[in-house]
Amino acid sequence: MGVLLKRVALAVIVLLVVIQVFRPSRTNPTADPKNEITASLAVPPEVAAIFNRSCGDCHTNRTIWPWYSGVASVSWMVAYDVNHGRSALNFSEWGMGNPKKNADTLQEVCKELTEKEMPGTFYPILHPAANLTDADIQTVCRWTQDVRPGSAAESMQTNP
Fold first, then answer.
1. How far is Cα 76 from Cα 109, in angstroms, rounded to an integer?
2. Model confidence over 78-88: pLDDT tens digits?
3. Closest Cα to residue 74, out of 30, 112, 125?
4. Is residue 16 part of a domain?
5. CA–CA separation, 20 vs 79, rounded Å?
6. What is the pTM of this model?
7. Is the dihedral of CA 42, 48, 50, 51 positive or negative?
8. Helix (H) / strand (E) containing 10
9. Residues 6+ positions from 152 with CB-CB distance below 8 Å
10. Rounded distance between C-alpha atoms, residue 83 and residue 80, angstroms
């Protein structure tokens, strides 16, 4: 029994070393400031701070890749989450989107925050500062309600 346990342990160690070779790409595409959400909409500093603290790693092109994002198999999950997050909503590419879709996306942001779907389950465990308080959620939702197509805040940004 002892020999079998040693062989299994050795096989697991070898497997863990070998999978380190297969790493996903951890990229941050170039972000054009003209396409940032702040170039299209008046984003109050308190909302921008919440977005930066709780959303930026998965929903911008400025991901801060933590040390564990280089360790397989965790690296695969982190890269998947970032790529999936960017494809669903990317504040760095906001200006490249359809204005109607962007307006709908803002409403979805409020809905997902209110339903505690974002910033996800595991992200706040590893990044405690990303936890959203009820006040944070209310701040973002109030802003998403104020920034609608044709609203004063949007007109102020798009028609200086």
1. 25
2. 999 999 999 99
3. 125
4. no
5. 14
6. 0.77
7. positive
8. helix 2-19
9. none
10. 5
Secondary structure string (H, E, C) spanning 13-39: HHHHHHHCCCCCCCCCCCCCHHHCHHH
Report d(CA 52, CA 118) in Å as an integer.
14
| Distance between start and end Cα atoms, the chain | 77
Closest CA to 64 of 50, 78, 80: 78
SS in 3 state form for 47-71? HHHHHHHHCHHHHCCCCCCCHHHHC
Give the chain's mean pLDDT.
86
> Does the pLDDT at position 95 exceed 80?
yes
Residue owning tokens 């079998």? 4
Tokens of 52: 């930066």
In a domain, 7, yes or no: no
Q: Token pair of 65, please?
A: 């890749």
Per-position b or e across 30-54, b if 16+ CB within 10 A of its CB: eeeeebbbeebbbbbeebeebbebb
The count of domains in the chain is 1
Residue-wise pLDDT for 110-150, tens only, equals: 999 999 999 888 889 989 999 999 999 999 999 999 886 44
Q: How many CB atoms lie within 10 A of CB 105?
A: 15
Q: What range does the domain containing 43 cover?
A: 26-158
